[in-house]
């Protein structure tokens, strides 16, 4: 299986620097260009997705839609593929912080800005705390058990599946760590094209963040799944994380290997510049695209 974990394009709330977890923030014009570039890049590289999943929030769903759009333009057989939008893949719920500005750490304080703000408002009526890491891990393990692992189980060597999961920066980190916990010791490695900055040890659990439309490219190979494996023996100390809820024992990937081919891949964004005058940072308007297409068509006819 070839697996891509992809973050959505830039949103209005990204630009405004406000917390947007379950809040349905729209893509900006620049974010739409990023998603379009990503779709074109995959199509040009000959990457053909057999399964496309996304969060049901519009910023992820529309990014995934661009991937499918460009694949369909290159491959007529893509008609059987669609974007499966799942609430499970939503971003961490920021609760009371949703829609509020990022909080900077106060000078001399041991607490982060968000922690200090939380402490000051926790007793107010209607306060809702941020979704816990454990809650996110439960969601991600549910996604793995009910969606991704079944694809691996049915994998045929003659035609290995290629899967994309378009979601959000924080929850993608949780998904990655939950997936990592399914592999036995020594079965996950960095690809030859990846280099470790400064050399030495690299934490597989924390490979780094996702830029807008950045992707983690994974190559998963194997044959069978074990139905009787001790979870303590199957998960190495290197892959145990306090925020990862251990998977059920029949879902551990014994005999499988995973190679990390690219971390935060952004080749598709090379030379992409933001449109000036605030246009690039504005909310993308589908109607504007139609108007521009109409006038472009008129100009071609006149010329």
Helix and strand topology:
Blueprint lengths: L1 E6 L4 H5 L12 H16 L6 E5 L2 H17 L8 E4 L26 H9 L11 H21 L8 E6 L1 H12 L7 E3 L24 E7 L9 H4 L22 E9 L20 H17 L1
Parallel strand pairs: 1-4, 2-3, 2-4, 5-7
Antiparallel strand pairs: 1-6, 6-7
Structural account:
The protein has 303 residues and is of the alpha/beta class. It contains 8 helices and 7 strands. The chain has helices at 12-16, 29-44, 58-74, 113-121, 133-153, 169-180, 231-234, 286-302, and strands at residues 2-7, 51-55, 83-86, 162-167, 188-190, 215-221, 257-265. A 7-stranded mixed β-sheet has the order 3-2-4-1-6-7-5, with helices on both faces. Strand 2, helix 3 and strand 3 form a beta-alpha-beta unit. The chain is globular and about 55 Å long.
Mean pLDDT: 84
The percentage of residues in β strands lies in: 5-15%
Residue runs with pLDDT of under 50 for 5 or more positions? 224-240
| Alpha-beta content class | alpha/beta
Shape: globular
Radius of gyration: 21 Å
**SSE order, as H and E?**
EHHEHEHHEHEEHEH
Distance between the terminal alpha carbons, to the nearest Å?
49 Å
Oligomer: single chain
Query: What is the strand tally?
Result: 7
Helix content: 25-40%
Spatial strand arrangement across the major sheet:
3-2-4-1-6-7-5
Number of helices: 8
The biggest sheet, with number of strands, parallel, antiparallel or mixed sense and barrel status, is:
7 strands, mixed
